[in-house]
Amino acid sequence: MSKSDGRWTEGVCGDGAAILYDGMRVDIASVIERLNSIETLRKSRNDWVRSCSKYVAEIETLTRECDDLRNKIHAIGGSWIA
């Protein structure tokens, strides 16, 4: 089974239904494997997004703290701080 962005459809095989991927019959085990892989990737992506959001928030906090310190240094006459 290809990992491309193919098209999933259904068809008739004998007296039952068949799952098709780009027109080719796919066995149920392969479909389940693909669905489980997608769920695993989705969870990994969501974990990664949460991690990134956490780090962005930390960077924003550190930036505010640096700005506050820079302002305090300027207020006491520390013109040597950029």
Strand content is: 15-25%
Average predicted confidence as pLDDT: 87
Q: Rg, please?
A: 27 Å
Ranges where pLDDT stays below 50 over 5 or more residues in a row are none
Number of helical regions: 1
Number of strands: 3
Task: Characterize the biggest β-sheet.
Answer: 3 strands, antiparallel
Helix/strand structural class = alpha+beta
Q: SSE string, helix = H, strand = E? A: EEEH
Span from first to last CA? 59 Å
What does this structure look like?
The protein is of the alpha+beta class and 82 residues long. Helices cover 59% and strands 18% of the residues. It has one helix at residues 28-75; strands at residues 8-13, 16-21, 24-26. The chain has a three-stranded antiparallel beta sheet with strand order 1-2-3. A hairpin with a 2-residue loop joins β1 (8-13) and β2. The mean pLDDT is 87.
Supply the key terms.
82 residues, alpha+beta, three-stranded antiparallel sheet, 18% strand, rod-shaped
